[in-house]
Amino acid sequence: MGWVESLQEAIDFMEAHLDEPIGIDEIAAQANSSVFHFQRTFAILTDMSVGEYLRGRRLTLAAHELVSTDSKIIDIALKYGYDTPEAFAKAFRRQHGMAPTDARKYLGSLKSYNRLVIQVSLKGAEPMKYKIVERAGFKVAGVKQEFSTEDDGNLKGIPAMWQKALADGTDERLFRLNDGQIEGVLGVCIGKEGGLMDYWIAAETGQEAPEGFKAMEIPASKWGVFEVHGPMPDAMQDAWKKIFSEWFPSNPYEYAGTPELEVYPQEDAYQPDSYSEIWIPLKAKQKSHLQ
């Protein structure tokens, strides 16, 4: 079964259990995937997190029941995972712009999040510039934080981590430390068990890690190195989406499951002509699924 089909199976599993508590580990297992890579792939292809999808779909079905049945509001709230009417009303208002009692009275328009069907584009209208690179292991040094991928903790925490690195001079120190083959400051993602991930802001170097920095060995790998042209963050996000929706389905590789890198230049990354890179560890495709 291909990885697109595996992702759809996970979506179908979510849909079948919207009125039950389900964990991200159960969902990722439907796609034969680690939690980290499932959440990352889902977010790249759908522009929303797994949690946002579940929340949006549950509140969509809750609204439908409010206007089409006589079920008590508290019963609907409990059915879709809200312990109190207050928590349900707050979430309902955030999505639909009205209270559940107003929806029952048909006093406004509701917002519907429809069931997802994954369709991968193989258009390839705009050629992607990439190269395959084989490298022995190499060392990076920098700062590290652990994030939970549950409740979008990584999506909130990583931008804050970058802001701090820019504000306190970490970014500049890393550029001065950088003496390796990869020129630039790296964002390094490492998936872990239990819905956790490590994120590094680092640089490739042959030097000892200076005070305040930690060192890590990036394992030997075959890499797909993808060019990213344009201002951050949109150019990087668009490149990731094209890699997942166009490049992986039409090439004989899959994720190797080791750290992945984003490479940022020393010049202003928000300029229209900014150049960055994405480094993805690859292995030959055996059976196509998410890693």
From TrEMBL:
Alphabetic keyword roster: DNA-binding, Transcription, Transcription regulation
Domain HTH araC/xylS-type residues, every copy: 8-106
Record protein name field: Effector binding domain-containing protein
Pfam families registered for this protein in UniProt: Cass2, HTH_18
SUPFAM superfamilies: Homeodomain-like, Probable bacterial effector-binding domain
Keyword rRNA-binding carried by entry: no
